[in-house]
Design goal:
transmembrane; seven-stranded mixed beta sheet; Antithrombin, Chain I, domain 2; single chain; Serpin_sf_1; membrane; alpha+beta; seven-stranded antiparallel beta sheet; Alpha-1-antitrypsin, domain 1
Length: 385
């Protein structure tokens, strides 16, 4: 997962370095990993070697074990008490000219619970695009209406792999709406703005940690079935303009993140978190290539474990796109992500610490037992959707 977190941190820095729009960011490392894992099971040779390296898997057995762990962590949950709703769905669309290899079909169905659909990319490219977008819309309960833009699918497309992730969690300790008040938030660029801040209870202890240059607060959700425990972690720089420095610290010391999940339970003097709601979409191909994953995107890419090849069997991934969204309010969090990969042919007691997130911060949504990070993002301006 570290490579996907590196990708997320680089995308965050890209947004910060633009320096003029205070654009918020959210993405799902897990959704990217699932899509790449499906792709890896259909590859071989040097292409497979690069995918295994990027996915931090020693071999195919290790990848299968990691994929099974992810699918188990994201197994469907729909609690009647509105504590947790979770789903992760996978889909495969393959051009009808090609025959799916039985070995890939078995992995898709047993490990990823994905059905391989035969479609006509040559004559019905736009129809297939609409079909995939409708699948994503249904899988994310309407939060994401379109992940494939017009022109993303053409007659040259032969395979689309997709993952859709939906999360809805209720806070273990809900914020009271009547205590939500407008307060100042200090964006990276421009004057302070007034945004609605939720006030957390200080009567109970919260998991909190203070590190060099930043603080971390864990905000737990109600438990799901099988004792799965989700939490949002908020990473707040000490300096109002310190987010970039904090992210650089994670880049230089990847082991630092593990320490941030080992927090102490203490009382806080203040706990203020802004409400926010926004979406973010990006193309992952170029940033993945910068991280060393190159062969899948070149014409030498080998994905002949997915389909029976007509001639040379060399195909390449033309795009990997992800669309994500998140909403945080007094009751809890709703978040969704969809990833599509398209393959083309070719003494005195110290004062209590406080946690007032009134300037740009980073957040993650993590499941505690597996350690899998489902979402990561930053809030630069809570008012921007």
């Amino acid at each position: 997962m570290e490579n996907c977190l590196r990708m997320a941190r680089q995308l965050i820095l890209n947004e910060i370095n633009k320096g003029c729009n205070n654009k918020n960011f959210v993405m799902s490392p897990m959704s990217i990993i699932v899509a790449l894992s499906i792709l890896a099971f259909g590859s071989r040779g040097r292409t497979l070697e690069q995918l295994l390296d990027f996915l931090e898997a020693k071999d195919m057995d290790d990848l299968k074990a990691k994929a099974s762990l992810m699918m188990s962590a994201a197994a469907p949950v729909e609690n009647t008490n509105e504590g947790l709703i979770l789903s992760s769905l996978n889909g495969v669309w393959i051009d009808q000219r090609f025959a799916v290899r039985p070995s890939f079909k078995e992995i898709a169905e047993t490990v990823f619970k994905a059905e391989a659909n035969a479609v006509d990319f040559v004559n019905e490219a736009e129809k297939v695009r609409n079909k995939v977008n409708l699948w994503v819309k249904n899988a994310t309960k309407g939060l994401i209406k379109e992940v494939l833009a017009p022109g993303a699918v053409s007659g040259a497309t032969i395979i689309i792999l997709a993952n859709a992730l939906y999360f809805k969690g209720a806070w273990l300790y809900p914020f009271k709406a009547k205590r939500t008040q407008p307060k100042k938030f200090y964006p990276l660029v421009g004057e302070p703005i007034k945004v609605p801040f939720m006030t957390g209870t200080t009567e109970v202890k919260h998991f909190f940690g203070s590190f060099e240059e930043f603080k971390v607060l864990e905000i737990p959700y109600k438990e799901g079935q099988d004792n799965r425990r989700f939490s949002m972690y908020v990473f707040l720089p000490e300096k109002k303009n310190g987010l970039q420095d904090v992210i650089q610290r994670f880049n230089s010391n990847p082991n630092l993140l593990d320490k941030c999940f080992d927090l102490q339970k203490i009382h806080l003097s203040d706990m203020l978190i802004p409400k926010f709601k926004f979406s973010y979409g990006f193309e992952a191909k170029e940033i993945m290539k910068n991280l060393g994953l190159t062969l899948p995107f070149e014409t030498v890419g080998d994905f002949t474990e997915i389909i029976e090849s007509l001639e040379s069997g060399k195909f390449f991934v033309s795009s990997i796109v992800q669309e994500s969204c998140i909403e945080v309010n007094e009751k809890g969090t709703k978040a969704a992500a969809a990833t599509c990969a398209a393959v083309q042919l070719t003494s005195r007691p110290p004062p209590r610490p406080s946690f007032v997130a009134n300037h740009p911060f980073m957040f993650m949504i993590r499941e505690g037992i597996s350690g899998i990070i489902f979402f990561v993002g930053v809030v630069l301006n809570p008012l921007l959707g």
